[in-house]
Amino acid sequence: MLPLLISEQIREGDAYTIANEPISSVNLMERASRAFVGWFVNRFPDKNEPITFYCGTGNNGGDGLAIARILCDHHYNKLNVVIARFSEKSSDDFKANYERLKQTCVTIKELEKGTQIPEDNSRVIIDALLGSGLNKPLAGDYARLVNFINDLDKTVVAVDVPTGFFSDGEVPQNAIAIKAGLVITFQQPKINFLLPESAPYVDCWEAVNIGISEKFVHSLNSPYQFVEEKDIRQILKPRHHFSNKGTYGHVLLIAGQEKTMGAALLSSSAAAHAGAGLTTACIPESGLTALNSYLPEVMAITRRENTMPQIEWDKFSTIAVGPGLGKDGEALALLKTIIKNYKKPLVIDADALNLLAENKELLTMLPAGSILTPHMKEFDRLFGTHSNWWQRLQTSIVKAKELNLCIILKNDYTITATPAGKAYFNSTGNPAMASGGMGDVLTGIVAALLAQKYKPADACIMAVYIHGKAGDELALPNRMNVVLPGKLITQLPVTMAKLKA
Ligand SMILES: NC(=O)C1=CN([C@@H]2O[C@H](COP(=O)(O)OP(=O)(O)OC[C@H]3O[C@@H](n4cnc5c(N)ncnc54)[C@H](O)[C@@H]3O)[C@@H](O)[C@H]2O)[C@@H](O)CC1
Ligand SMILES: [K+]
Known about the structure:
Homotetramer. Helices cover 41% and strands 17% of the residues. With 501 residues, the protein is α/β, with parallel strands linked by helices. The strands form 2 sheets. The protein has an 11-stranded mixed β-sheet. A 7-stranded parallel β-sheet has the order 4-3-2-5-6-7-8. Strand 16 and strand 17 (415-417) form a beta hairpin. It is elongated, with a radius of gyration of 26 Å. The protein starts with a strand and ends with a helix. Bound molecules: ligand NAX and potassium ion (K). Potassium ion is lined by residues 60, 127-131, 158-163.
């Protein structure tokens, strides 16, 4: 797991590394700038491309000056640096790099407060005005310069953070900040890059390692973690010889109505494909033919109107409820029956979440370690309206702890909040997966992993990762515009086998 730090902790990490590696501050800046350049030259190999650097006078500006010098060493020959002298203060490392840059043939212009911004004919812009030192929204000269750069409509590569964009905390609506095509960021993605508010400012990002002390970073015990493939490889267990269907648990999916049988079929198919030893679907009687023909592997318990289904609760390793279930009185009665009779962790999705939102007392009665899988709207129905994702992130952590549940808050970087007070950001998935039924598939995977005896938090983190990874494996190499849930399901065994290879 890659711990994600807030700006204050990032500063502490820099200071710790400087003091204990030890390395001088200016050499750490040099290392960061070289890491930036290492990535940049691959993406922008044309050395005759005019590039303009906009540099502030703090350490982000210092990085900009160092990067310009290093690119000059790499024979990039049309480099212009504009220094925004909007503050009397400049950092020591900025000053040192300013002196070094003067020894090169890079053109340097100074932009004073209130003066006209010179014309810019470059093709690529490097934004090194402000980085993680941002402490208030941009105004005055900075705002004017940032608006000017955004209006140029060029390719902008931001150093560490787009100027004006808060790395963590609430992002003000319509904030003035650089709209970057690419952010090459140091050591770790900034937390707000992973939340939807970053969309106008961060088209894509790349984190480059600058050697900040891992020991120190881990000692901070950050609640925010970024899940990487190696983490999943570590927890995913192989299927052993001499195992049998009983080894891998029995999932019960309680889902579907006559017109939403698709949700029941997708979630149970996903459970079977994600490795549940046995899968049973509890569906309306009218859906039986569909189930038997689409999924011969899945067994059925049928529901009849006005009658509770007969369920042998102890038979099932886990129960998932909600996809396509509807919200009528019968669905509510069924949910209450489940909660009353089943004491192992439940997976609760879709309509079952909305039923919980309308009957909040049930939330506190869920078995410990149960898993909720809301998208944004379902989340707000459960826990109140939020005006931004930073708030939602905090609420997910608080509620997961308070209710002793795992919450999978679905988004681009889906967040799993756990009772231990952690929030895990997923790193797989792509927009081709934005299609109806994808959530039902996720529910099936979570249930299958719980049935295979993974701990609830692990089951969530793995399911979300595997779901996104299967979507990536289909969409990215094949350039698929849309990946349908049924197709993704058949990829799951392949994805899981690759992760275990
Ligand atoms: N040794 C280190 O600490 C390292 C720092 N690095 C770079 O240093 C950056 C952070 O540098 P700094 O802490 O100097 O901060 P910045 O360069 O981000 O900002 C400079 C100063 O601008 C002022 N400022 C903040 N918000 C403002 C606003 N809205 N309007 C006007 N002025 C404002 C603050 O006083 C701040 O200290 C990182 O983003 C990264 O690029 C890297 O070189 C890696 C190593
Ligand atoms: K910047």
